[in-house]
Write a structure and sequence with these properties.
This protein is of the alpha/beta class. Helix content is 46%, strand content 15%. An 8-stranded parallel barrel has the order 1-2-3-4-5-6-7-8, surrounded by 7 helices. It is globular.
Amino acid sequence: MSTVNRTALLGSLRGRLIVSCQASAPSPLRRSDIIAALAECAVLGGAAGVRIDAPEDVAAARARVRVPIVGLFKQRTGSPIYITPTFEAAQAVARAGADIVAVQATRERDEHAEPLGPLLERLHRECGVLVMADVSTRDEGIAAEAAGADVVATTMAGYTPHSRQIPGPDLRLIEELAAALSVPIVAEGRIQTPDEAAAARRAGAWTVVVGRAITMPEAITARFAKAIEDAG
């Protein structure tokens, strides 16, 4: 991807919302056409981009929306590295239409999956896509930038044993990464309300990703149901 295209793509996301449109079995939403419809709804609501899992869902969303797509390919095989662990997985979502490929960049990668540096270099060279490094700590973010990541996301914060375990978004990590890195920082993970999304932006996030609070009806319903039950 040329420098001009990279700048334009990242610029289109600055200060905007990315909606994560994903559903795993046994969710009733687990169909590519439904994921694509969710992506289209997100764009109609003002999202500047969408984050989509798996090649078939990326392809379905690409047919419905023109905004940037962050593609990933979760492969749960028992390894601690499950977000786009291999070049083949990354290549598949790139070929399906992703503009940015998200890869897990936590410290376990070098031991359990393809090392980050060679993976990023190959993705840039062979696929022409930007790469989002999903990290859980400041040190992982620094290492990801050094390895060539175009953007760094807090996606894995709280999901590794060596990261802070807090119920909401890790605003402190966003601040730490924004202070330490020169690449854009993406806030992602446990953002439940517009106020939390705004707080993430104020903490230094270039863009903010929200998923289940927008696109998972069962989770949204459960929050309302519990609030009503607790009130009475």
